[in-house]
């Protein structure tokens, strides 16, 4: 498709497309009209002759025109009727007449700037298209937030300071700020000594990434931690520091965060606190210094060139294998070998600085030292965080899936991308969620379908960054049995999705963006992403040469585990000779979908909301 921006040609309700610089093709702009279902809903709840309501003007979804044509759609909907519509048709039980009137007033204010008491058909149609007034999912926090942290999926970033790829991009506080503004609740920082060994930098070790001072990142977290959510921010630290620099981190964190910083009085927790108890608090998760120092004494093989096989991050190593060493650990070992006794005594004295750092750790972390199965044994009076790579998770879930579920009922499991994802790509998150893993660490600076799924999952629960795990992941049977992700279960419910129409591309794109010689040919693809039995794909027909495509097609999706299913939607523009053009996407948690006719806003490839583009859809559960 031609992507070269052309001069706009809009004349008398039509678009002109110039071909070969000498021929004009004229396409009429069709006004958006309510579908039959919209008209039927209006007629069902409207009444004739409500006082103070004038005839409507303007078309739905951004078009202009009068849809009233004497077919029974010339009535109006007042506050009481609108309340009934929201309750009976949209499933919004508990809506008051006063709330319904406020919605009516807002629609009329946007469309007419006058005082009226009810909605005509066009007003009603426009209301359905306003995604802020008629969103597809519940827009506020509505889940129980008083359970321990281990009961929630938590919006988690990986190497949160990187601006691009894992090998050579800049490190900066800007990606940290963007992540927090999006609602991410877990920020990862890799800590390394600066060149003089007197201060702390944040960077991806043993790569060409340029460092950013730790103090910049901490101040940014302080300033933006609760810009989008009041629930706690967890800082996971991968620290490669000496004891004196660890003490400096403790001093920095205490001074910068002040009362925002939470840490427990006891050395270890028997149960994690709840998100509600940690409102507007920041907590730290890392390995305690004792474990850290033990890990700093590597078993060095005769061939010290083993460090050439190390992956770029200590978190990305294969845990539990002595053969894989970091360059930093080998140099440290050699340095310790060359120290005099007096030097080592000085270092032991500095160990007195450890408690200040250790005291600030709320969530004690670690990686498997032996087998993962052994590490996942649940300790009665102690909870912790365990980190596994995406490959380790796959292997563990294949052989010990119920052990993973059992571990995540009280403890926190963090999954991170494999070390070869140098381009900051991501992995499939559903396997982790299906097994109860709370922290699926993603590279937030990239884009792609996996990241769209992550965005979709955490649109749930008002976008607060914490989503309550389904109850079946937290239950134990009489014989300590837990949910088995491999076990096939019957269909629990069927989701019916009707795609009515789309709107907004004409406002957000040049008229030649999709095709240099004609209006676009849009179609919509829908995917269910969940447990393997529920995965499905559907596609509408292609609507040719139309900026306002009307599909009016319905699809059914039988679901065995709807609590973990995501509905991914993508609009494409058909291209006969090249790859179909991208027209927008979104991803919605099925468990959060609101029944009825809803406006579904679309997002660009990076997950930024488009200004005007949205779909009109209907969701029904059976």
TrEMBL record:
One GO molecular-function entry: phosphatidylinositol-4,5-bisphosphate phospholipase C activity
InterPro entries: C2_dom, C2_domain_sf, EF-hand-dom_pair, PI-PLC_fam, PLC-like_Pdiesterase_TIM-brl, PLipase_C_PInositol-sp_X_dom, PLipase_C_Pinositol-sp_Y
Cell compartments where the protein resides: Cell membrane
Cofactor(s), names only, from the UniProt record: Ca(2+)
Domain PI-PLC Y-box: 387-473
Domain of life: Eukaryota
Key words, A-Z: Cell membrane, Hydrolase, Lipid degradation, Lipid metabolism, Membrane, Transducer
Keyword Cell membrane: yes
Pfam families: C2, PI-PLC-X, PI-PLC-Y
Keyword Membrane: yes
C2 domain ranges (all copies): 475-604
Name the record gives this protein: Phosphoinositide phospholipase C
Species for this entry: Arabis alpina
